[in-house]
Amino acid sequence: LLHIPDIPSPWNARTYWATDIGEWRDKHIDIFTGYGKAARDAAFKITKLPPQENSRVLAVGFNEIKP
Fold first, then answer.
1. What is the rounded CA–CA span in Å between residue 13 and residue 5?
2. CA–CA separation, 32 and 60 (whole Å)
3. What are the domain boundaries of the chain?
4. In sequence order, which ranges of 1-67 are alpha helices (DSSP H)?
5. How far apart are the first and last CA of the chain?
6. How far apart (Å, rounded) are the C-alpha atoms in residues 22 and 35?
7. What tens-digit pLDDT sequence spans the chain (67 residues)?
8. Closest CA to 14 of 22, 24, 26, 5
9. What's this model's pTM, rounded to 2 decimal places?
10. Comparing C-alpha atoms, which of 61, 62, 52 is closest to residue 7?
11. How far apart are CA 57 and CA 65, in angstroms?
């Protein structure tokens, strides 16, 4: 379990858990924000596009659900 305090609210107050037991050192964290325009916009807000050079957080939000 982990918290990421330096990302925008409300995501900075959430608790995240890893589903991969790989090593975290020098890795990034993916945050799935859901589907739809709001999810895509949230992903852009979290990732702070363009991403900061030292950012290790990447957010993914899909504009549409693909069949």
1. 7
2. 5
3. 11-62
4. 37-47
5. 32
6. 27
7. 777 788 888 888 888 776 665 665 666 677 777 787 788 788 878 776 555 555 555 565 555 655 4
8. 5
9. 0.51
10. 52
11. 23
